[in-house]
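I have a small job for you when you get a moment. Would you make up a two-line entry for one protein for me to read? No commentary is needed, just the two lines. Write everything out right here, beneath this request.
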Amino acid sequence: MVRLMLRLFLSLLLFSSCVVAQTAVKKPETAKPVVARLTSTLITEKENIRQLAFDGSDDSAYISTKAPTKADNVTLTFEKPVTLKSISVLTGKPKGGNETTTAVLEASTDGKTFTVISKFASGKASVEPGKQFTAIRVAFTDDDKEPLYLREIKLQSDPPVLVFKNPIEIVPDTSEVPEMKEWLDEVVELCEKQYPMICDELKSDGYTPPKRITMTLKKDEKGVAYASGSRIVGAASYFSKNKKDMGALVHETAHCVQAYRGRGNPGWLVEGVADYVRFFKYEPNKPAKLSPEKAKYNGSYRTTAAFLDYLCEKHDKDIVRKLNEAMRTGKYTDEIWTTLTKKTVEELGRDWQKSLAKE
């Protein structure tokens, strides 16, 4: 009887230890990092774009073309409120000069009403507010004498705020159709928000995406839109009637990031990669079901995008990045499909058609 009681006691002790151990290894959930948007009332000086003021580096800077006035500000807005533990802002050139003398650091709980939380001294401001805010901004109490050199905004917050890993400034131009300014501003905000995703989907070693893109609406432009280098042109006549089709300009932004060399890349694949970014990474829903008889791997645009998505699921989740890198470096040949999948592109196309028939 004593031995039975002892065994029972040891079993209970062992069970309790396991429960405690399992409980001990359970980690608390980590808050998802917050995305921010940086805006400015000042015009950017060439490639020294706004987002360089929040890219995690003191060596880069947002530089304005003119000196700030008391009507100007540079605002960092968070997608949701964060508790700011500490903030420091650095202005001026690395070797001295252009430190702001008229700025204050302000914060807001609603993104509309701002209050001063720190003043600048020798071009620097720092504070440990320990409070929740939706936005902070560098504002000016008087007209300054020199252009703004905003080198870095540094934050410690809960949850953390993501710095701009791939800084971008998309410059809108509605000079020919001023009535569409508000719409294009909204598109620019969307494409800048999607830029980190686009750069990640089309990344390759040693490649730096463009930091500045112009997006222009033309009154007499035909079709929908096109991209050339770091320039996007859209047809005002189309977008005035199809304002919900903002994804078309996400597609063109992807073309700017593709930055392919030479003319040896198949057009169907170039467009397919851009539409893969649009329809399988940006758009909330995948394209409608395709007919197996009509679906051709080289059908371009949405059709090729669906083919690429199939290859990501069945063969290699990074195949779009690998194809993109080959086209970017001018190394694309038809043999790449066999190298990556052990099958020709024609064989892959037939496999894809068979999979569509089973859906």
Notes: DSSP finds nine helices and twelve strands in the chain. Residues 2-25 form the longest helix (24 residues).
